[in-house]
Design brief:
It is built from 18 helices and 50 strands. Strands 1-2-4-6-8-10-12-14-16-18-20-22-24-26-28 form a 15-stranded mixed β-sheet. A 9-stranded parallel β-sheet has the order 3-5-7-9-11-13-15-17-19, with no helix packed on it. A hairpin with a 5-residue loop joins strand 29 and strand 30. The relative contact order is 0.07.
């Protein structure tokens, strides 16, 4: 061991290239073990410093390996148990390496900080280790498209932060695990949004315990398994569901009668089972796009009258369901309808499409029925109608009719066309891109598991997909010139497949870093297509055309270390060691001070405060707690030099950009424009305030930059936008009564923390619905402390020289007296509570919401006579337990006298009581929101910072003028 230490110290003294080695020795040892299990590791994995020498796919923080992303590297071998020693590892992505085989090591369960485990499209086999249940920070688990076998580990139920769970397309067997008191199960994953278990060999029944009203699932995919028994009625309790696939199993019995409670479901696939009883009545499922109940044993019945009421329907599949009678002409007038397939039924009479059928209608397939006539319009139809096997096609002369001809297969020859150029002639290893350049593209197959459309002939879908994907690649600064989509098709499991080719913008091929980055965007679901395409995954072809960078060579001095060590003997060794230890200590001290200065420009170095204000007016050194300093150069890298593609909002303060940290985490970066910038002292104070408050219901400050005349704040990125956007319907999020109570309790807790637990207390001064943001679990977080005021001892009732706030939310007592207390925030929160009830703006068409509620409110009537102004989306017609108490609390908060308003602590307690009364658990709020997966999940790039109102009151810039109410 002494020789090893001496060798290291000698290298430091001699100034060898490894002198600035940044990799922790234990991490280097572990990654070397991982490397040794691969026959063909990346060529630049040489030397002893993966962090300092930037090994392909390796990212580090403070000398520790935190991320390994090596998708599509053509790796062969196995995953060594040494991986479990990388204790700081957050992300492991080895996707699309089909040569990685064998079982997953149990040591993978030692990666306690792992958030993303992505092994899509590899060759792993054997059982998924139970130790995976120890990864309590795991957010994204994707093991699909491997050869895993055996049971689903029940221990996965311990992963209470899990958002994405994809075990599809494996060889898993056995039953679906649920908890039983002593063992965990999938029913415990209350915050998981994706259950992807299709194309396995799972058997047994679907436990009723698997689903509950507390879950937040949006995708439940159990297609192509061997499940038996009936569908559990508890499925109807998960009202967040958007895609449900139980097709191609052996399910029996009747479809649960409460299935139509799932009013957010867009795709419902129950085909190819043994379901019996009546066709389910799906009245009220107004979001339904794709309905497939084919090939079951339902009772014979007339065509269901509720189907034409589904006005979002694009695809109706009722093949072999014993439907009889006439098809109503109104069916074909559904605006979005594209395909109707009712083969092999008992339909009869005349087929009449009518004259006002959907202009999107492409296919009516009624083969093998009893239709004896087809009423055609004089101008004909552009719709493909198939009536083979009906009496109408057995009449004399019918054989020549197009609707009696053998149908063509549903395929498309679509391929992305050239962009106004002539395709280039390329050699055998290259292809002409849409921009007519020869290069070697990165290729693979996009698989969409539940698209909401059925026709493959509409090129608009593919053009939109290509544009959105290209925008995503550009936003992450990937060197992509163009992309091409081709050969759209459906497989036997109703998955929609599309070939993808990604062309490089630099040279004729990608380097390894670019390939792994593109692969990560696709494997980690960082790119999200339109909901039109539904959940997807990507399987890459092997890429062999890497543009290799020069492999670093080992220093001659480094290779001679052993000789130098061998010559150092006796007392000389001792003297040399002492000298080297001194040099080493000095260098370490200098390096540590340099690192400290880089990470925090406000520290004291050598007794002097670092000057951080470009205008030389910094004042005292800020007291920071947890906020990180970013260089301007770093933030430029994270935002593609503040490109327009990265911009997600603008306002009076400046602009907000989406940034991606090296870890893959998305952040929101608010950049002040020159005309609105604060002075150095004010900016320092705001950073201090933001960095001192840490609560799960407050938006976190990640860091800041004050350099070269720039002022920038870096916040956590919240994907679900502001409360205002949800209430107005612009975010696409539907808030029922339970969700509104959850938002209210979260925001109240954040505000109560500022008033009662922060030291000194903080008054926000600008509580409003645009400053309440929602994470991926719809937990509320209070944002924007730009106008906040610290209240020291004796400052209660502080007199301000300028009234600040937002019209409609402003406390009238504060406005009149300029006396600022925490009760001013309580008033604003009361207005937000009324917004939650009505979805109306505080002042709308000249009417003030507080006054309107007071005028209408009658405690002797049901719902206090507020039905006329309540938001219908809240669930009118359903049980709204506790609503009256909520109204009373809101009106207490907006009392004209601050002394008569409750404190925020009292507000929190009362909302908790209301939730209990409503049958909800006020403690069920998620402890955290995810970081690296949130942006991957949503697909659209709506963001809370896209609303100008959010920016209008941040920092110390002038607020808008306040008028009397």
């Amino acid at each position: 061991m002494g020789v090893r230490v001496l060798a290291i110290l000698l290298v430091i003294l001699l100034g060898d290239s490894t002198a600035d080695a940044a990799t922790n020795p234990d991490d280097f040892s572990s990654i070397t073990g991982v490397k040794s299990a691969w026959q063909n590791p990346p060529p630049n994995w040489v030397g002893a410093d993966p962090c300092g020498n930037a090994w392909d796919g390796i990212s580090c923080t403070n000398s520790r390996i935190t991320s390994i992303t090596l998708s599509s590297m053509g790796l062969t071998g196995s995953l060594s148990g040494d991986i479990g020693q990388l204790s700081e590892l957050r992300i492991l992505d080895l996707s699309y390496n089909k040569g990685l085989t064998g079982s997953l090591p149990v040591q993978i369960g030692n990666l306690m900080k792992l958030t993303n485990l992505i092994l899509v499209g590899c060759g792993f086999s054997g059982r998924i280790p139970d130790s995976i249940g120890s990864l309590r920070n795991l957010v994204f688990l994707s093991l699909n498209s491997n050869r895993f076998s055996g049971l689903i580990p029940a221990a996965i139920g311990n992963l209470d932060r899990l958002y994405w769970l994809d075990l599809a397309d494996n060889q898993l067997t056995g039953s679906i695990p649920v908890s039983n008191g002593s063992n965990p199960g999938l029913d415990m994953l209350l915050h998981t949004k994706h259950f992807h278990f299709g194309q396995n060999q799972l058997d047994g029944t679907i436990p009723s315990q698997l689903f509950s009203s507390e879950m937040h699932l949006i995708h439940v995919l159990f297609d192509n398994n061997q499940l038996t028994g009936s569908m559990p009625s508890t499925l109807g309790l998960v009202q967040s569901l958007e895609v449900v696939r139980f097709d191609r199993n052996s399910l029996s019995g009747a479809v649960p009668g409460n299935l139509n409670n799932l009013t957010s479901v867009q795709e419902l696939h129950l085909s190819n089972n043994r379901l019996t009883g009546p066709l389910p009545n799906l009245t009220g499922m107004d979001a339904l796009n794709y309905l497939d109940l084919s090939n079951n044993s339902f009772d014979a019945a007339d065509f269901p009258p509720w189907i034409p009421t589904l006005q979002s329907l694009t695809t109706l599949m009722l093949e072999h369901t014993q439907v009889r009678g006439l098809l109503p002409v109104i069916l074909f007038s559904i605006f979005s309808l594209q395909s109707v397939v009712l083969r092999n039924n008992q339909l009869s009479g005349t087929l009449d499409i009518g004259t006002s059928h959907s202009n999107q209608l492409q296919l009516i397939d009624l083969q093998i029925n009893f239709i004896d006539d087809f009423k055609q319009s004089s101008g004909g139809y552009s719709v493909e109608v198939i009536l083979i096997g009906n009496p109408v096609c057995q009449e004399t002369g019918a054989a020549g009719q197009s609707y009696c001809a053998i149908p063509q297969s549903n395929t498309s020859s679509y391929s992305t066309p050239p962009n106004n150029c002539i395709p280039a002639t390329c050699n055998s290893n290259e292809t002409s891109s849409p921009n007519c350049k020869c290069s070697s593209p990165y290729m693979g197959t996009l698989v969409f598991r539940a698209p909401s459309f059925s026709g493959l002939g509409n090129s608009t879908y593919f053009e939109h997909l290509a544009r959105s994907m290209m925008t995503s690649f550009q936003s992450y600064q990937l060197p992509v010139d163009s992309i091409s989509l081709s050969d759209p098709r459906k497989d036997s499991s109703d998955n929609f497949k599309l070939n993808l080719s990604v062309f490089p913008s630099e040279g004729v091929s990608f380097n390894r870093t670019s390939i792994s980055s593109i692969g990560f965007v696709l494997s980690n679901q960082t790119y999200k297509p339109s909901k039109l395409f539904g959940p997807f995954y990507f399987i890459a072809d092997q890429y062999t055309y890497f543009a290799e960078a020069q492999v670093p060579t080992t220093s001659k001095k480094s290779s001679n270390v052993g000789v130098i060590v061998g010559a150092a003997a006796g007392g000389f060794v001792l003297l040399l060691l002492l000298a080297l230890v001194g040099v080493y200590a000095f260098r370490q001290k200098t390096r540590a001070e340099k690192a400290t200065e880089q990470s925090n420009p406000f520290v004291v170095i050598y007794g002097n405060a670092v000057n951080w204000d470009p205008n030389k007016s910094s004042g005292s050194i800020p007291q920071l707690k947890g906020a990180r300093w970013f260089s301007l150069e770093d933030l430029k890298k994270y935002t593609n030099s503040f490109s327009g593609a990265s911009e997600i909002g603008s306002g009076g303060y400046g602009k907000v950009y989406r940034g991606t940290l090296p870890t893959g985490t998305l952040v929101a970066i608010k950049r002040a424009q020159q005309g609105s910038m604060q002075g150095g002292v004010e900016f320092k104070n705001e950073i201090e305030l933001l960095s001192r408050v840490h609560h799960k219901n407050l938006v976190s400050l990640v860091g800041f930059c004050f350099e070269q005349g720039e002022q920038l704040l870096v916040y956590e990125f919240l994907p679900n936008g502001s409360l205002k956007e949800s209430l107005s319907g612009t975010s696409g999020i539907r808030l029922d009564w339970a969700k509104r109570l959850k938002v209210a309790i979260g925001a109240a807790r954040g505000l109560a923390y500022l008033h009662e637990l922060a030291d000194p207390p903080i008054i926000h001064r600008d509580i409003k619905s645009t400053n309440i943001l929602l994470d991926d679990h719809l937990n509320a977080k209070v944002a924007d402390f730009g106008l906040s005021k610290l209240m020291g001892e004796g400052e209660r009732g502080h007199v301000t020289t300028q009234v600040k706030g937002t019209m409609g939310y402003l406390d009238p007592e504060y406005y009149m007296t300029q006396q600022l207390t925490e009760k001013s925030d309580v008033y604003s929160f009361g207005v937000v509570m009324l917004e939650l009830l009505t979805a109306r703006r505080p002042i709308e068409r000249g009417k003030y919401i507080v006054r309107e509620v007071r005028v209408v409110m009658d405690k002797d009537k049901e719902l206090y006579n507020l039905q006329g102004i309540l938001d219908p989306a809240i669930g009118l017609g359903t049980s709204l337990k506790g609503l009256e108490r909520f109204v009373e609390l809101a009106m207490r908060c907006v009392d004209d006298s601050g002394a008569d308003r409750p404190s925020m602590g009292e507000v929190v307690k009362e909302i908790e009581n209301i939730m209990v009364f409503a049958g909800l658990n006020p403690k069920a709020e998620s402890e955290t929101s995810s970081a690296s997966h949130e942006e991957a999940r949503k697909g659209n790039f709506r963001h809370p910072y896209s609303n100008e109102d959010f920016l209008e009151y941040s920092g110390g810039f002038p607020p808008s003028r306040i008028e009397p109410q």
